[in-house]
Amino acid sequence: MSWQNGLTGFLAGLLISIVTSPVGVSGAVFLLPVQLSVLHVPSPAVTPTNLLFNVVSGPGALARYRRNGQLAGPLARLLIAGTVPGVVLGAIIRVFAIPGPRVFRLVAAAVLLPLGLWLCVRALRPDAPDRSPLSRHAILGLSVVTGTVGGIYGIGGGSILGPILAGRGIPMTRIAPAALASTFLTSIVGAATYGVLALSTSGDIAPHWRLGLLCGAGGLIGGYLGARLQPYLPEKALRLLLGLLATALAILYLVQGSTAASR
């Protein structure tokens, strides 16, 4: 790995995490296309490299949220209970089934685009009613699904689960620390699962350690700064930011899916 790639990875992790950590979205969700298109990390090694980024960067934002007293509560425990087994399943699927990334991008875009637009409208029109709250069983089921997605693609399930919970009226001050806590713990489990699978499976499965650590170091600083910024942002601004991120990600996936189909 060249020093230029290392510096690019560090700066990408720093800037992305500043923007995403206030709304509970792992920076890995936007770091993934950077690793694929700019840093040229091969697949499937890009997934455990992204998980390594989450492991290194996560404590920055979580330390700040804990200092603010925002990590207490049942939501984080509920998300962790679903995403941890999901990420193990996702890692196994990624190594042995290797699902096509184009299909995932299109499905993720179909979910994120309406959610992102809904959150933007909801933020700009505060009088618009939230949908009915999700039950504990529904949140647990969604956590398993998003944990599996995180295990397959290393993006962190909070990028999908966060907009869903926000659209159901849960305050962003509760969603962000819970989503990042579940992403952090599931990334540890997912990275360990890939490490075990790499011992008995051929192919480029192990993470690119130096790049993942450098990206994560940037994310560690950026996550802390973003979490420190959150209390100064009103709920309306946080929902609008999450909606814009979800919409931008959906458009990015649609463009990547169309590009892959034209090749």
TrEMBL record:
The chain crosses the membrane at residues 43-63, 75-97, 103-124, 136-155, 175-199, 211-231, 237-255. One of its GO terms (cellular component) is plasma membrane. It comes from the Bacteria. Keywords: Cell membrane, Membrane, Transmembrane, Transmembrane helix. It is a multi-pass membrane protein. The keyword Transmembrane helix applies. It is found in: Cell membrane; Membrane. Pfam families: TauE. Belongs to the 4-toluene sulfonate uptake permease (TSUP) (TC 2.A.102) family. This is Probable membrane transporter protein.
